[in-house]
Design goal:
heterodimer; A: alpha+beta; Arc Repressor Mutant, subunit A; 3 domains; 10-stranded mixed beta sheet; 3-stranded antiparallel beta sheet; 39% helix; B: 91 residues; two-stranded antiparallel ribbon; binds zinc ion
Chain lengths: 478, 91
C-alpha cells in the first residue's frame, strides 16, 4: 500500500534581545551557570513581570515577514506544568490571543512552489537548563535561559516529506535572520524544531496517530528522524508490530532512532489561564508601520538586487542569500572592492570550501572583510596568483594577517618576468625527456604535469597564464 | 465528578487516601458553585484579563544586573558549583 506522511512543525526561535522577556537580566548565551538570574526569573513570589518592548517589536517583525495577521490586542497566559527547569511551575506564553495568526511561507522543492500555512506565532519564555549528575544522583539547575524570549511558529499539517520540511526551515531561517529577529543557530539552540508526524494510506482523509519528535539539532538530524519515524509508523500499521500512541519522542542522534519520552498531554492538562499580572498589549497601525519601515533588506530583496542590479547568476545569489552571515560578508567586502562576480566567487569557492574542510557552518565564518577585499584585489590586479591568494586566505582567517604586508614581507608577489619563466621552462623540459617524448606522441595530458613542475620550480609564484603560453611556444618549437 | 488522581499526577503530588477524600469533597463543591455561574448571560461581555485598566506596560530592552549568584543561591536548600541541586529528575 502507498502511504502519505502528514507533518506539522513547531519551530522555536530565540529573539535577539539584550535582556529577558519580563526582567532586565542579560539574555546573552554562554554565561556561567546562574549568572544572569534575578528574583523575577527565578520565580520568587511577588516579583513583577514587565514585558520587554523589543521582544514585541521582533514578534511584529516575524509576523510581517511571514505574511501573518497581527492580533491587535494580545495577552499573555500561564501554562502550568511541574518540572524543575521552570522555577515558577508555569510558563508565560500566549494561548488565547497570540501575536499573530494565519500567515504563510512559500517553499520551493523539485515539485515546484508551495505555500506552507501557519496557524499562529506566539511569544513565550524559555525554560532553564537541567543537567543530570550521575555521580551524585542529583539534577543540577541553571536558570540563565529561564525567561529568555522566544517565538514559537506553529504551522498547519501541510508537510508531506522531509524535503519540504528542510526547505521551510531554511526559508524561515533566512526570513528571520535577515529581519534581525534571531540569529537562528540550530547548534546553539537559538532555533529548535519539533516535528508532529502521522502516516495514513494515500488518499485517506482520516489522520493517523500523531507523535511529536524533539531534540533534533541539525537539518541532517531532522531528515533522519523523519525517515525513521515514518517507517516506524508504517511498520506498526502494516505488521501490527506495536501499537502507536500519541506521545512525545526524543531523537537519539548516535543511535539514529527515536525513543519514547512521555505521553503527550492534552492542551487542557496545561490549564492555561490569562496572566493577570501582565497587561494586554494593544498594537496600533502606527506601531506596525514603525516596525515595518525599519525592517532591513529581506533575503528575497537581496536576491533580486544581486541577480537584477548586479547581474550575478541565480545559483550564486541563492547561496549568498540563504545565510545572513554570508550576505553580510558579501556586502561588507563589496564596500571595499566593488567587483561582485569576483567577491561572490571567492566567498562560494574559497571561503565556503575552507569552512567545509574545517567542518564549520556558514554562520561561524569570521573574517575581516577589508582584508578579504584586499586579498581579492591583489589577485584581480595580478599582484599575486590565485594559488598564492588561496594560501593567503587561510593566513587571513587563522592569523588575521594583512594581505599586502604579508605578500611584501614573504616575497609572494607574482613573477611575471618572462626571461625568468623562459629559463624555468627550458630547465623543466630538459629534466623531463620522457614527458616531452609523450607529448610528441600526442599525449596532451602531460602539459598539466609540466605546468606543475614549472610552477613548483618558481616557488608557486609565477603568473600561470604567462607560464602556459611560454610552455606552449617552447613545446611547439620542439 | 473530578478525577483527583489525574490532577495528582499533573501537579506531581502524592496524596494520602484521607487527603484525597477531603480534596475530592471540596473540589466537587467548587464545581457545583461554578455550575451556578453558567446561568449568567455573558454573551456581550468581553473576557477580562486583569482588573487593572492598564495596557501597554512595557520596558526598554536594557540589561539590569540585579543580584549576585551568591545571593541568588543563598536560599537554595542544596547547591553545587553555581547550580541549584535537586533530587534526580528524568523526563
Ligand atoms: Zn531575571
Amino acid at each position: 500500500m502507498k502511504y502519505e506522511i502528514v507533518m506539522g512543525l513547531e519551530v522555536h526561535v530565540e529573539l535577539s534581545t539584550q535582556s529577558k522577556l519580563f526582567c532586565g537580566c542579560s539574555a546573552k548565551f554562554g554565561a556561567d551557570a546562574n549568572d544572569n538570574v534575578c528574583p523575577a526569573c527565578a520565580g520568587m513570589p511577588g516579583m513583577p513581570a514587565v514585558t520587554n518592548q523589543k521582544a514585541v517589536d521582533l514578534g511584529i517583525d516575524a509576523a510581517i515577514v511571514t505574511n501573518s495577521q497581527i492580533t491587535r490586542t494580545m495577552t499573555f497566559d500561564k501554562k502550568n506544568y511541574f518540572y524543575p527547569d521552570l522555577p515558577t511551575s508555569y510558563q508565560i506564553t500566549q494561548w488565547f490571543a497570540p501575536i499573530c495568526r494565519n500567515g504563510w511561507v512559500e517553499i520551493e522543492t523539485e515539485r515546484g512552489k508551495k505555500k506552507i500555512t501557519l496557524k499562529q506565532i506566539h511569544i513565550e519564555e524559555d525554560a532553564g537548563k537541567m543537567v543530570h549528575d550521575a555521580r551524585s544522583g542529583t539534577s543540577m539547575l541553571d536558570f540563565n535561559r529561564t525567561s529568555v524570549p522566544l517565538i514559537e511558529i506553529v504551522s498547519n499539517p501541510d508537510f508531506r516529506d522531509a524535503e519540504e520540511v528542510i526547505d521551510y526551515l531554511e526559508k524561515l531561517r533566512a526570513l528571520l535572520s535577515f529581519a534581525g529577529v534571531s540569529d537562528c543557530k540550530m547548534q546553539e539552540g537559538s532555533m529548535r524544531c519539533d516535528v508532529n508526524i502521522s502516516v495514513r494510506p494515500a488518499g485517506s482523509e482520516k489522520l493517523g496517530v500523531r507523535t511529536e519528535m524533539k531534540n533534533m539539532n541539525s537539518l541532517k538530524a531532522i531528515t533522519a528522524a523523519i525517515a525513521f519515524e515514518a517507517n516506524r509508523h508504517i511498520d506498526a500499521i502494516e505488521t501490527g508490530s506495536e501499537v502507536l500512541i500519541q506521545e512525545t519522542r526524543g531523537w537519539d542522534d548516535d543511535k539514529g532512532i527515536t525513543f519514547s519520552m512521555r505521553e503527550k498531554e492534552d492542551a487542557t492538562d496545561y490549564r492555561y489561564f490569562p496572566n493577570p499580572e501582565l497587561m494586554p498589549i494593544v498594537i496600533s497601525d502606527e506601531w506596525i508601520e514603525r516596525v515595518r519601515s525599519s525592517l532591513p533588506e529581506t533575503s528575497q530583496d537581496k536576491f533580486v538586487r544581486m541577480t537584477q542590479t548586479l547581474g550575478l547568476p541565480e545559483y550564486d545569489s541563492s547561496i549568498i542569500t540563504r545565510s545572513k552571515a554570508l550576505a553580510d560578508i558579501f556586502d561588507q567586502t563589496m564596500a571595499h572592492f566593488d567587483k561582485p562576480k569576483e567577491v561572490v566567487n571567492w566567498i562560494i569557492v574559497e571561503l565556503l570550501g575552507i569552512a567545509k574542510g574545517d567542518n564549520k557552518g556558514e554562520d561561524d565564518i569570521r573574517i575581516d572583510c577589508r582584508k578579504f577585499a584586499d586579498l581579492i584585489r591583489l589577485v584581480d590586479e595580478k599582484a599575486i596568483n590565485r594559488n598564492v591568494g588561496k594560501k593567503l586566505l587561510i593566513k587571513v582567517l587563522e592569523e588575521d594577517v594583512d594581505p599586502e604586508n604579508y605578500v611584501k614581507e614573504h616575497g609572494l608577489g607574482m613573477l611575471t618576468d618572462t626571461s625568468l619563466i623562459d629559463k624555468a621552462v627550458s630547465e623543466v623540459l630538459a629534466e623531463n625527456p620522457k614527458s616531452v617524448a609523450e607529448f610528441k606522441e600526442g599525449k596532451l595530458k602531460v602539459v598539466g604535469f609540466l605546468m606543475g613542475q614549472i610552477m613548483k620550480k618558481m616557488g608557486g609564484k609565477a603568473d600561470p597564464e604567462a607560464v602556459k603560453s611560454i610552455l606552449q611556444s617552447q613545446l611547439d618549437q620542439l | 465528578m473530578l478525577e483527583i488522581s489525574k490532577y495528582e499526577s499533573l501537579t506531581k503530588l502524592n496524596l494520602t487516601e484521607i487527603e484525597r477524600t477531603q480534596i475530592e469533597k471540596i473540589a466537587n463543591k467548587l464545581i457545583v458553585s461554578f455550575e451556578d455561574l453558567r446561568e449568567i448571560d455573558t454573551k456581550n461581555v468581553e473576557p477580562l484579563v486583569s482588573v487593572l485598566v492598564l495596557q501597554n506596560v512595557l520596558r526598554e530592552d536594557i540589561n539590569v544586573k540585579s543580584i549576585s549568584r551568591e545571593e541568588l543561591l543563598s536560599n537554595a536548600p542544596e547547591q553545587y558549583g553555581g547550580y541549584f541541586q535537586v533530587p534526580k529528575t528524568l523526563d
